[in-house]
Specification:
This protein is α+β, with helices and mostly antiparallel strands. The protein contains eight helices and 15 strands. Helix content is about 30%, strand content about 25%. Strands 1, 2, 3, 4, 5, 6 and 7 form a seven-stranded mixed sheet that branches. The chain has a six-stranded mixed sheet with strand order 8-11-12-13-14-15, sandwiched between helices. A two-stranded antiparallel ribbon has the order 9-10.
Length: about 350
């Protein structure tokens, strides 16, 4: 549309390509501005006001929310019935829950929105991080006074500082659950409000082999985080390790498989059962050797019972890791913590 030939979007993990993508966008829009004799202000008016009205409108699937965030500020009544560009955390993901706190003179949580797009950093907008908000649900007002007097929220850091800097504040699963409690106590049907998504682990599966861990536990978990094979992760990525010798790590997440320049932000090794420290040590040494070749920032070891996540500081430390049992991932806070560790 408008005969603007936009460059293709590179993978999120390819930082250099992302930088050059932004540079290419600047060149494309500069040429368009010059060809149409537009001033910089007119180009902004075209991009942000005129052009969106001519884009085909289609109902996009909004994924289930995995995170709740606070946003803040007074809202114009005319903005209550349409999708609105609003200040938010740039880490917001499409589908996430947005709890709206309206500032003085209202000073209350008044409604719940759903993020319609991933958060962005927009150099042309007043605020640093933003998203489009929609699917508004009005709720009974939960005032700042009520939150101060509530047993759970009275010591909450956001309440203690009177919601200063509210926009983009992350809410834990426990925070959101307690907020639903307060809303329900006012006679509101909280079943109509969005619920935080957590994966439902397979029930009654039988893990007998290493590939069962991969196919029945690990891959469904990666898929539930929005990552898919040959797009976000690859199995058995061949790596050159010495003259004529190749090795094949189980999984490379956020990868680049350009020959002789293979990279992966996260290296994952799956085992059937790491029953003792000796087994963990052997798996760790194997994974670390792959991670060094791929320039990885995180290592994941997993078996039929749990996952071990190692994050690189100066180096990978065998004794410095976070352990997650598969069953714990049904807790939204634990699920999000693990996802954030792997989303690098």
């Amino acid at each position: 549309m408008f005969e603007i030939d936009l460059p293709s979007i590179p993978k999120k993990s390819n930082y250099k390509a992302r930088c050059m993508y932004y540079w290419s966008l600047c060149e494309v829009f500069y040429r368009f501005r010059a060809e149409n004799e537009l001033s910089p202000a007119e180009l902004c008016a075209f991009l942000y006001d005129f052009a969106p009205n001519f884009m085909p409108q289609k109902e996009a699937d909004v994924p289930q929310p995995t995170q709740a965030w606070c946003i803040g500020g007074l809202i114009d009544k005319n903005e209550l019935f349409r999708t609105t560009f609003w200040q938010a955390n740039p880490e917001t993901k499409k589908g996430d829950i947005l709890i709206h706190y309206e500032t003085a003179p209202i000073s209350a949580i008044t409604r719940v929105w759903i993020a319609q797009t991933d958060g962005v950093i927009d150099p042309f907008f007043h605020y640093y991080g933003n998203t489009y908000i929609g699917n508004k649900i009005d709720i009974p007002h939960i005032s700042l006074k009520e939150l101060r007097e509530d047993k759970y929220f009275s010591n909450h850091p956001l309440v203690r500082k009177n919601f200063q800097g509210v926009s983009g504040w992350s809410m834990s699963g426990a925070d959101y659950s307690e907020l639903l409690r307060m809303i329900k106590a006012k006679g509101f049907d909280t079943d109509v409000l969005p619920k935080l998504y957590v994966p439902t682990l397979p029930k009654g599966i039988v893990i007998e082999y290493e590939h069962d861990v991969e196919q029945l536990l690990l891959e469904p978990l990666l898929n539930s985080m929005g990552w898919y094979e040959k797009k976000d992760f690859i199995r058995q990525l061949p790596i050159q390790a010495g003259r004529g010798h190749r090795v094949f790590p189980d999984y490379a997440l956020h990868y680049d498989n350009k020959p002789d320049e293979e990279k992966a932000k996260v290296l994952i090794e799956a085992k059937l059962h790491m029953k003792n420290n000796q087994d963990i040590e052997a798996a760790f040494l194997q994974a670390r050797s792959y991670a060094r070749l791929l320039g990885s920032s995180a290592i994941v070891l997993c078996d039929k019972d749990y996952l071990l996540v190692y994050e690189k500081k100066d180096n990978f430390d065998r004794d410095s890791y976070k352990k997650y049992y598969w069953g714990e991932l049904e807790n939204p806070d634990v699920f999000n913590e693990l996802k954030n560790k792997l989303n690098i």
